[in-house]
Amino acid sequence: MRSHGKAPAGASAEMLPAGVRMVRATNASPMTEAGTNTFIVGRGAVAVIDPGPADPAHLAAILGALAPGECVATIVVTHPHLDHSALAPALAAATGAPVHAFGPAGSGRSPGMARLMAAGLAGGGEGVDRAFRPDSLLADGAVLRGSDWELLALHTPGHMGEHLCLAFGDTLFSGDHVMGWAPSLVSPPEGDMGAYMASLDRLAATAWRRMLPAHGRPVDDPAARLAALAAHRRGREAQVLAAVRSGALTLDLIAAAAYAGTDPALMPAARQSALAHLIDLAARNLIEADPLPLSDARFRAA
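RESULT FIELD:
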């Protein structure tokens, strides 16, 4: 672990409650809002959550946000998407800190999704960091500790099979599972709608005081945000199911009906979300897919 000095001019570090600093990457986009939020937890020997995209300027900003004598002792990646994990190797090389995560891309995929992928399910690879290899695997319930911080890993698949949230007392680093500006993309085979809803339910069982997402502003009413996300997904599910019951047979027709009025630039993501709902509905025997719930299947009501 190597220590670094004071922030250079232009470094962007935000102090947040509960011993947390935030440095935002300059990777704004329709999918990342203002950019990826990289969090620094603790003082002295700190943890860095979600190093962000492979941007030398962001690496310099993270290191510059450390106080004199501080060092990065631990790096944690919530999931292997390029806007979260791609900078991890460079940050590890600069600091000597190990990289912790649930696993590489694909390691958290459910058996059902793996079967569909073997049958030809493609797509869903938006921004996957296929080169990512953590030094240490974090199972559900694993704990990382520093002198003044403790992070509890919660496996929350859905947005991605490898997704982790990290509990810091009653504050939750929610990664992309609960974002502060929009619902998460759930894009099969990396994304799994059934798992996403189950993870929302799991998080809703705890009285969080605040959530700190990797995109968007802090969530100051986590219970309301979780309820709103669940209601949004149930509403979309109802629209997808209604489209099938009305006779829409293909993914394109179903997505057009369920996501009517969506910005055309966002329709590829909407199509993948519709497919995620269809896969989940088929798994619950609410619809039928011929031959399997793949993007080229024919769908009908059960």
